[in-house]
Design brief:
ten-stranded parallel sheet, mainly beta, 396 residues, single chain
């Protein structure tokens, strides 16, 4: 490995200097600050060490500065705030410390600010709200504290906001709902409290919403169902309660991984999406669940035996999936069950006699499966039953 030669400072007409993805080591030569015609400087993905030279503040024509993926240390020089032509500032994946300089708010042409994966501390400067040209702001994986500034509401061009994996506290500012260009919002793995603001429903272009691993409480706003562009939703490891309804969207996740938590939910409707995977035994932890609707998705596997422990369940709708195996007799333990919809799957075996114990059952639909055997007379014990559809099976 070799160092960047200081002799490059003699190339005074140089406009572009790309040295990224090499084996360069040692410090960034302060002499590079003499290249006053320089517009693009890329030194990323090397083994550069020491601090960022304050002399780089002399590169007043600079439009892009890439110093990411090195071993740079020390603070971010406040003098970088003098680079008023800068459009991209990429300092991520280093060992930078100290606070984010408020002087960066002077970079009014900035479109991209990457400071993630460092050891930055202190609060997020409210003056970053002055960077109204910003489209991508990523401050994740640092040691930032304090609240999310409400001043960020002025960043109306913002498409990506990553503040995850810090030590941020306080509520999620409702003002974030004004960032209508936002596509990715990641606030997970912090210490955020309070409720999820209903104003986030105004982020109609949102594709990713990660709020997991915080201390959020209260209900999941039904208004989130308006986020019809949403592809990934992470709300796990919080204190959220009550209802989750995100049916009739185009969400696509492995349901065995993404929804195995949320033990306090009472109502869950994920119908008419593109969820896939199996209903694993972790679904048996949802002891408060009263209604489970995951119809019209791409679920595989069987109906877990653990469903029999969900004593509060009144509605099960797993219709129009690719479930196979036998109907678990454990469902017969759900004495409060009103509706059981398993139609249009690939279920086999017989109808469990235990379903006759469901004295409150009103609707039972097993249409279009591969069920065999006899229809048990003990279904007559379900005196409230007013809809029964067992057609298109192999029953006798």
């Amino acid at each position: 490995m070799s160092q960047i030669p200081t002799s490059l400072s003699g190339l005074t007409s140089l406009r572009t200097l790309y040295l990224y993805e090499n084996q360069l080591s040692g410090p960034i030569p302060p002499e590079l600050g003499k290249l006053t015609s320089l517009q693009d400087l890329a030194l990323g993905t090397n083994h550069l060490t020491s601090q960022i030279p304050t002399s780089l503040s002399g590169l007043t024509s600079l439009r892009t500065l890439y110093l990411h993926t090195n071993q740079l240390s020390g603070p971010i020089p406040p003098e970088l705030g003098n680079l008023t032509s800068l459009q991209v500032l990429e300092l991520s994946t280093n060992n930078l410390t100290g606070q984010i300089p408020t002087s960066l708010s002077g970079l009014t042409s900035l479109r991209t600010l990457y400071l993630y994966e460092n050891q930055l501390s202190g609060p997020i400067p409210p003056k970053l709200g002055k960077l109204t040209s910003l489209q991508d702001l990523e401050l994740s994986t640092n040691n930032l504290i304090g609240q999310i500034p409400t001043s960020l509401r002025a960043l109306t061009s913002l498409r990506i906001l990553y503040l995850n994996t810090n030590q941020l506290s306080g509520p999620i500012p409702p003002e974030l709902g004004k960032l209508t260009s936002l596509q990715d919002l990641a606030l997970g793995t912090n210490h955020l409290t309070g409720q999820i603001p209903t104003s986030l429903s105004g982020l109609t272009n949102l594709k990713i919403l990660y709020l997991f691993e915080n201390q959020l409480s209260g209900p999941i706003p039904p208004e989130l169902g308006k986020l019809t562009s949403l592809q990934k939703l992470g709300l796990g490891t919080n204190y959220l309660t009550v209802r989750l309804r995100i049916d009739h969207n185009q969400l696509s996740e492995n349901i065995s991984e993404e929804f195995g938590v949320y033990p306090n939910l009472t109502f869950m409707d994920l119908s008419s999406n593109n969820f896939y995977g199996e209903l694993t035994n972790v679904w048996g932890r949802k002891k408060q669940l009263q209604a489970l609707k995951i119809a019209k998705n791409n679920l595989t596997g069987g109906v877990p035996l653990e469903f029999g422990s969900l004593s509060q369940l009144q509605v099960i709708d797993l219709s129009s999936n690719k479930l196979h195996g036998e109907i678990s007799k454990e469902i017969g333990k759900l004495t409060l069950l009103l509706n059981l919809y398993l139609e249009e799957n690939q279920l086999s075996g017989g109808i469990p006699e235990e379903l006759g114990s469901l004295s409150h059952l009103e609707n039972l639909d097993h249409y279009r499966n591969g069920l065999t055997g006899q229809i048990h007379g003990n279904l007559a014990n379900s005196e409230q039953l007013h809809y029964l559809n067992l057609s298109f099976n192999y029953l006798s």
